[in-house]
Write a structure and sequence with these properties.
This protein is α+β, with helices and mostly antiparallel strands. It folds into two domains: about 25-55, no CATH class; about 65-200, Coagulation Factor XIII, subunit A, domain 1 (Coagulation Factor XIII, Chain A, domain 1, Distorted Sandwich), CATH 2.70.50. About 15% of the residues lie in helices and about 40% in strands. It contains five helices and ten strands, in the order αααββαββββββαββ. It has helices at about 5-10, 25-30, 40-45, 90-95, 165-170; strands spanning about 65-70, 80-85, 100, 105-115, 120-130, 135-145, 155, 160, 175-180, 185-195. The strands form two sheets. Strands 1, 2, 4, 7 and 8 form a five-stranded antiparallel sheet that branches. β5 (about 120-130) and β6 form a beta hairpin. The longest helix has 9 residues, at about 40-45. InterPro entries: Ig_E-set, Rho_GDI, RhoGDI_dom_sf. It is found in: Cytoplasm. This is Rho GDP-dissociation inhibitor.
Amino acid sequence: MSSNDDQDDLKPSATPGYKPTGTAKTADEYAQLDAEDESLARWKASLGITAGVSTGDTSGPRVTVLTLELDSPTLPPGKTLVFDLNDSAKLADTKKNPIIIKEGVEYNVRITFKVNHSIISGVRYIQLVKRAGIKVDKLEQMLGSYGPQAEPYTKNFDVEESPSGLVARSGSYNVRSRVVDDDGEVYADWEWSFKLAKEW
């Protein structure tokens, strides 16, 4: 599936001063910690962590990545570029039939995910792009820290510009995407392909 070099490239950057805890706590356990500290209580409340609020079933994944979307003001009306991570057949098809991205346009990536039952911290999206087996780009975007809630979170990445020119348009690009936290826990890992063209 991938080489050891890929595994190294898909590891998150080290956060200075961060030491992995090794054991995850539930939201209720975090709510009880340092309960008398008012500023900490306000920060925990901003993450949806309050004492006595049950986070429900603690089995299953802490994070469920729902979609990855590429958005651009130049997209024709009605056209969307959305990867539904729950549709494995469609994801597998994008490896064989690359999506088309217009060259030289501004676009941004948007990710939607659900935090199920535990606090998550230092979560990142990592994207490794190769062409003909050679790494041509790597993106690492911090998603942040979140508490569990019923509604999904959406994170918009910074605007980027797609490459352009004859060389950029020749061949397809293979992408490996991963959502991982500072502790190295992988929440999603998938592959897809794209081609650059003069039009969408």
